Amino acid sequence: MSNTIFVVNAGSSSIKFQLFSISGAGQCDRQMKGQFDSIGSRPHLYASDGAKSLVDRTWPASEIHGVEGALDEVVKFVREYSNGSLPIAVGHRVVHGGPKFGTPTIVNEAVMRQLEALVPLAPLHQPNNLAPIRILLERQPHLPQVACFDTAFHRGHSEIADRYAIPQDLYDEGVRRYGFHGLSYEYIAQSLGEFAPELVGKKIIVAHLGSGASMCAIARGRSVESTMGFTALDGLPMGTRPGQLDAGVVLYLMDQKRLGPAELSDLLYKKCGLKGLSGVSNDVRELLVSPDPRAKMALEYFTYRIALFAGLLAAAMRGLDGFIFTAGIGEHAPSIREAVIRQLDWLGVELDRDANAQGDTRISARGSKVGCYVIPTDEELMIAHHTWRVVSERTHQPIRELRA
User: Fold this and answer.
1) Which are the catalytic amino acids?
2) Residue stretches of the chain with pLDDT short of 50
């Protein structure tokens, strides 16, 4: 097998992974993808090469000890699949890069300490993103590992866009608007030539709609504004997060409800959003078929806020040429797309209902002033590209062994 890049995207109870072969020209070709999920309950490893299943195995919960045990099994599988050929580097998705990290970065102990200091800014994501890096750093200190940040794509924002109306010293220490889902937005921006060539260099809004959701204004291929801010709690309502929230609500919960930091974090990260609104579920698929009127209200709230923020983002660019849906909900929920587009008619967006129902790439009507598209995102491919670029620019010794 040719040189490979191993890509890891670790969560609280799962490790998503992909393996890419790298050609001499730096072309990244996906060899396989998989996931180790249900860590702590019903550990399950699955992987496919796109044509057939490569592994599908479940363990008793007592046999897999946390992320470290799951990573052991993933490494064993990858080694067997690769016939002993080992990756030249590992690329990781890291949600928060803070004010210091604006480009993909090779991780050493000094970098790791700085990334661990950002855990309070992304308590649900950062610890899980960093766990596999720490494990491999301890076991294979000479294996290049590259952290690719969800905040990096937004680092070119103007100071006006990034600031809150708070004292200067807080801004200087990093209390500012960062924006997230940057790897997804970067992929979409770079893929326009393939999927929507007429939008290359234009003013577009991308709606990354999944369990975590945000939107980004992109002009001439660069992020101009984003709905998320200091943390991944801001902006659109999400599966279990509230999105935009008056800070006075938090003060009220602290003062009147006597909620402490841990209780507030649990409420805001796990009990709000679509789950809190509906009382039914955080899963849009379940809400779409639920007869409960609260489920209908939650979805109407969701699409209303998407349309509302579209106006804000269009204003940031002083115009709009295209609107793109991506991620799980954006790619697979035509009724959500239709509900959003109905509320964007004032911007000149007209829906082709048949194209939308069929899941076509272009879903706007022929006479629409604003082109509307559905483009599947590929964050892992972006990580592979970034990882190869970083390690190819760095001289390092060949990796002889990757131990499980």
Assistant:
1) 150
2) 1, 396-404
